[in-house]
Each structure stands twice: as structure tokens, then as C-alpha cells.
Amino acid sequence: MSPNKGLLLRSRKRKWYKSRISYYSNTSASFNSMAISLLVSGDVHPHPGPEVPSQNSAQIPYSENGLSHCLNFSLLNTRSVRNKTMEVKDFVVDFDVDILAFTETWLRPHNMDDVEIGTLCPTGYRFLHVPRKQGRGGGVGILFKDVLNINTSLTVDYDTFEIMDVRLRSLYSVRILVIYRPPDNSSFNRFFEEFSHLLESATMESSDRILISGDFNLHMDCQDDVNAKRFTDILESFDLKQRVCVGTHRNGHTLDLLINKSDDNMLNNFKVYDPNISDHLAVMCDVSIRKPQFRKEVFFYRKLRSLDMESFLSDVAACPLVIDPSSDLDHLAQQYDSLLRSIMDKHAPVKRRVVTIKPAAPWYTDEVSVEKRKRRRLERKWRRTRLQADRQEYTRQCCVVNNLIKSLKSSYYTTIITENSTDQRVLFNTVSKLLQKQSTAWFPSSCS
């Protein structure tokens, strides 16, 4: 394997997002002041209702390796995202990650963690996951920009590992498998049998390009490890290659893997990074697909505040609708619509505005930027020296940044609630944002 393909390179210079992280804008259902106080404190996670509806998107065309702006794919074992939503979101936005595969989400089934999922998703992203059906822990998921055309596929249940099967639709379809194998040393034979069955169906039944990612809990860095050697032999028998060549766990072992066809140059620029979210490092690579842009929305509006009311009322009073209204109801309705619209277009014409939906956070301050720069500086120092003392300083600064963001968010919503204690509309909207409620448009029934 060439160095460009097989070796994990130095961590690239971190790309810091200048915008802010935002949350869903939602409608409301009910209001309770005690519920707000508990929710802001972070100790209560109420059930928010139905999942966020999916959105269709345009296809992302495939490009060759020479393309400078490739799709950023990352893999991370979070060991529970439920209490690390802000940290994960900060990582996704800072690195402008396009697709983030999760293992060990620890999310519960039956929509019990929809509030946490809503908080996890930056604006412009979607999240899909498969929770563990019984017991605690486990679970796999994928967070991705909603302009990407990604859909889930039904898979067979396996006893020795958890799996999520999704397809990225473009001019070339990519099948992405996210796998988590619990560290049960007694089930290796069964695991190899089931994994071989999966590879057989994945490689033989589809012409899609394939990307297998996940935490396999195998020490791939140990050449004398019998199970790691057997796993490699199985991959080679299906013409697959494991691309991660350095440690992905703080103990130094290579547990989190990226696998694709041996002769497929779709994956490039492998690297690892420690976001200090769990005891696993994030594995990152570039996929030779054009990097998606954030979704754009078109808004139409009128500048009603600049309306010359005196002139507007004069034109309304002089129009035929007021002077000589029609006696026919249908014609009167047509008059009402066309004449008033033309007067409005004269005084406040319709304006068009295109808005890019980017992550943003109203509580983001200059203090956060200062602390993040300090964190970056300590990270570079630790990577240069590799001293344990420098790592501890970097870890402490990560905690400072995370705690600062959480406290600013809590203070932001507390201030809104305090300053608008008599404004029911603001309070309802605030509760809806915290509960991640989605707006639902209700229309009257009609036979036509």
C-alpha cells in the first residue's frame, strides 16, 4: 500500500467554523414554568414526540481524486452521545464533517431520546440510528448533511455485532455499513461466521461501492494476534482492505476501522484526531465525492415597515374596489385580490432573498473563541511533545470549552425566560426549541 493510501497522516490544520450552532425553530404545544426550569438545568429529558421528517436532496456527483474539496467522512465511538451532544456537535462544526458514523451511541429505542438527538444535530444535518434492542449500551448511527441523499436499508439481525446499512446516492452509489462488535472474547468463531456471511451478501449482491466502518474490538495493530490475523484473511478473501494503520484507542490499539475494496481509491488522506469525547479517537478520511454545500432556502418578503401609510391608504380609497365594488361575489373576490395586490406591489414590492442554512448559536461569544484558540494551542503542543503532562493540559482545556458552552446556553435561555415572563408567545417558542418540537401545518379538510 502506498503511503498516500495506507498511512494515517499528520492531523491537518483544524478548520474553525466562524458561524454559530443553532437549533430547530419549532412551534409549541403547552407551557409550564416548572418544566422550563428543569429543562434548562439539564437534568430532565422529556419525550418530544415524532422524529424529524426526512428531506430529499439533489444528487452529489462523483469526482476523481484530484478534486480538492472532497466529502469528509469520520468515525467515532462516543460511548454514549446522550450526555455529550454539545461536544459532538462542536466537533462536527469545527471540522465541517459531512458524514459522521457513530458506534456505542447508547441511545434507547422507541424515540425515548429524541430531545438529545435534536440537540445533537446542527442546523443542516440529519441523524439516523439503530439502537440496541435489549439491554444498555451499544447502538450505531450516522449524522450527515441533509443535502446528501442518504437512505437506510433493512438488514438481517446478527447475534455478535450491531449494524446499520445506508446508501449514499450519487452518480455512483456508495453502500456504507456501520458496525459495532461488543468485546466478547467467547464469540469470535460465531462473529467470523456472521461477518463472512455479511460480506458475501454485501459484495456479491450489489454493484455499489462499499465502505465498512466501525469498532470491531480487534487489536489490528498486533501482528501476532490470532483473531486479528483471521479477520484480515477474511477481508482479503473478499478483496477488501483495512485502511487504518495507527492506534484509535487511548491504550494504543487499532480498534476502529475503515474498510473498502483493495483496488478502490475512493478513500484518501486518512488521519486520527482526539476530540476528547471518549476513550476512542476519531478516524477521518476524504471520500472522492464532491463536498456538499449547505442547503439554501428562498424567502419572499415585503418591507412593510418602510410603507408610506398615508399614500397607501390614499390609493386604497381611490381604487374601484372601494368606489365601485362588484355585486357579483366571485368578481368581488377577484377585485379584492388583484387590486389590493397591485397597490401593495406598488408601495412594498416583493423581495427575494436566498439564505444558506448554516450552523449557528445565539449564545456563542468571543470568550468561546478565545478558549478554543487556547485549546488548539495546547493540542498542537501535545502533538509535538507527546508528553503526558501536555496531554492533561489539553484535556483540561477541552473540559473548559465544553463547560463554557453549556453554561452559556443555559444562561441564554434563562435570560430569555426571565425577560419574557409575561410574553406567552416567546415562552412557548422557547419551550418548543428546548423540547425539539417540530412545526406541523394543519390545513382545513377539502373535497377538492
Question: What can you see in these coordinates?
Answer:
By secondary structure, the protein is of the alpha+beta class. Among the domains are: 54-290, Deoxyribonuclease I, Chain A, CATH 3.60.10.10; 296-356, no CATH class. It is 35% helix and 19% strand. It contains twelve helices and 14 strands. Strands 3-4-2-1-12-11 form a six-stranded mixed beta sheet. Strand 11 and strand 12 (282-290) form a beta hairpin. The chain is elongated, with a radius of gyration of 27 Å. The model is unreliable at 1-68 (pLDDT under 50).
The CATH superfamily of the domain at 54-290 appears as Endonuclease/exonuclease/phosphatase
Largest sheet properties: 6 strands, mixed
> Would you state the CATH class of the domain at 54-290?
Alpha Beta
Low-confidence stretches: 1-68
What would the CATH topology of the domain at 54-290 be? Deoxyribonuclease I, Chain A
SS field, number of helical segments: 12
Could you estimate the helical fraction of the residues in percent?
25-40%
Tell me what the CATH architecture of the domain at 54-290 is: 4-Layer Sandwich
Distance between the termini: 64 Å
Return the structural class: alpha+beta
Name the helix and strand elements from N-terminus to C-terminus, one letter apiece.
HHEHEHEEEEEHEHEEEEEHHHEHHH
Q: How is the largest sheet built, in terms of strand order?
A: 3-4-2-1-12-11
Average pLDDT, all residues? 82
State the total count of DSSP E strands: 14
Q: Which overall shape is indicated by the principal axes computed on the Cα atoms? A: elongated
What is the percentage of strand-forming residues? Answer: 15-25%
